[in-house]
Amino acid sequence: MSKIMDDAVDSGGIEVIIQNEEDKTAPRCPHGPALLFEKTGNGEEKGRRFYACSACRDRKDCNFFQWADEKISEARMLIRYCHFVSLPLEQRRFCVDCQLLILPEERATHAKHKALSEDTTVQRLKRPSLLLCPLDNKKSNAQYLFADRSCHFLLDMLLGLGFQKILCVGTPRLHEVIKLRNMKGKSPKMKSLLLDIDYRYCQFYGQDEFCRYNMFNHHFFDDEEAVTFFQGFLREEEGAKVVMITDPPFGGLVKPLANSFSQMAITWKNQNKVSNAGQMPMIWIFPYFFESRILECFPSFSMLDYQVDYDNHPLYKHGKTGRKQSPVRLFTNLSPKDIILPEDEGYRFCSVCERYVSAGNKHCPKCDTCPSKDGREWRHCDECGRCVKPSWRHCSSCGHCALPDHPCGQSQTGCFNCGSQKHKLRTCPKKHNKRMIVPGGRGAPGLLKHIAGKSTTKNKRRRTVT
Ligand SMILES: C[S@@+](CC[C@H](N)C(=O)[O-])C[C@H]1O[C@@H](n2cnc3c(N)ncnc32)[C@H](O)[C@@H]1O
Ligand SMILES: [Zn+2]
Ligand SMILES: [Zn+2]
Ligand SMILES: [Zn+2]
Ligand SMILES: [Zn+2]
Ligand SMILES: [Zn+2]
Ligand SMILES: [Zn+2]
């Protein structure tokens, strides 16, 4: 979002609006109450006001940004919803163009817009994720919604593990499915709190079910009230166990996310007076090629083989050759052996690794692990001393396995495994440190820099097609 601020600066400028000191309406970033700015110059958005960090002028230091009118519309949204649900069914409409529930007195304004019939609206009110179109922000917050199969797998898994309070961070569809299950009167009852940046959800959920939240800086948009509610939710009263489950946009950086999740874990500890060894149960859904980055931040996590499926993801549409493999996995501090993956989808239990693995993930006695990261059957290469993707061949001039059409002999200095310039793969001291091996890539540090740095989401996605 702070790109907008850069653009504002580029196109004419911005001015600070000094507010009354007692004005407590300013949203806060980690640096305290934000400052109110106004766009000047002649651009389209002249006069539009926004909040940005009071301390940092460089967005690299703090990327907090919020349009001032967005805050107002958010409060309005809640009032609208209360009004809306009190309407007789046949008067309920949803404007597709504006992504808004429309009140009768507002119909004229939306007369030329595309609206959904009352039937559809009523039917879908319980499934807001079907009513709202997924945000398709090319940058980082494209909204990919779980396919039913994956959503129900997650729900059943959490139930099976005995969790009754689910903190849904960027998982609106899971939140919705939990609510639906409660409406059907199933027991045990589960509680769910949705934290998401998409303010359209204010139309459907009260403050006790939804907080507008930024998972990149652990910021709650409604300040104290939301924070207090969040803290209360983490309190495990009468033995109701809490689990956090998150599915961040894949363009997101791992470190700021991990930092926010750690803050949550600290809050959980404080609320429950847990001993130091205790950890807040967490499930982080992210592509497998982020494994080493995530484990760097959370060494107690492990990656599970389960492939998360989405409804609207361009990569995983069912193609001619059957279902494409999803690169998205679960990372968790829960014990992998307790998470039973569906047998009818081919997952099986490896008694050596003590976890469920994909059908194609055969245990390699030489590596002493089920090595596959992408679900395909990997092959052990004796020269490399590890298992590699099936499409790779050992290249004697490079001294390691690679795709047959790899740029041979180029940039092959240093160790293939850890990136060090001081030795080759064969003598790598870290060769058996699983965390250093990044499937499909050269030495871990180089690749990681690439993923974390300039590469676009598209680049990252392309990495899966090898
Ligand atoms: C990849 S989608 C995951 C949706 C999930 N698969 C589901 O079906 O419920 C990412 C979600 O994170 C939300 N999101 C994006 N950026 C966010 C941010 N900075 N803070 C909090 N939520 C964010 C999006 O609105 C979206 O709901
Ligand atoms: Zn700040
Ligand atoms: Zn409209
Ligand atoms: Zn195994
Ligand atoms: Zn092997
Ligand atoms: Zn090899
Ligand atoms: Zn080569």
UniProtKB/TrEMBL annotation:
The residues covered by the GRF-type domain are: 29-71
According to its UniProt record, where is this protein located? Cytoplasm
Q: Which residues form the CTCHY-type domain?
A: 345-406
- This protein's record includes keyword Methyltransferase: yes
Give a Pfam family name. N6-adenineMlase
Keywords carried by this UniProt record: Cytoplasm, Metal-binding, Methyltransferase, S-adenosyl-L-methionine, Transferase, Zinc, Zinc-finger
Residues of the CCHC-type domain: 415-430
Q: Where does the protein principally reside?
A: cytoplasm
- GO molecular function term, any single one: rRNA (adenine-N6-)-methyltransferase activity
What GO cellular component entries does it have? cytoplasm; nucleolus
InterPro entries with a match to the protein in the record? Mlase_EEF1AKMT1/ZCCHC4 (IPR041370), ZCCHC4 (IPR039846), Znf_CCHC (IPR001878), Znf_CTCHY (IPR017921), Znf_CTCHY_sf (IPR037275), Znf_GRF (IPR010666)
Q: Which domain of life is it from?
A: Eukaryota
Protein name from the UniProt record: Zinc finger, CCHC domain containing 4
Q: Which organism is it from?
A: Cyprinus carpio (Common carp)
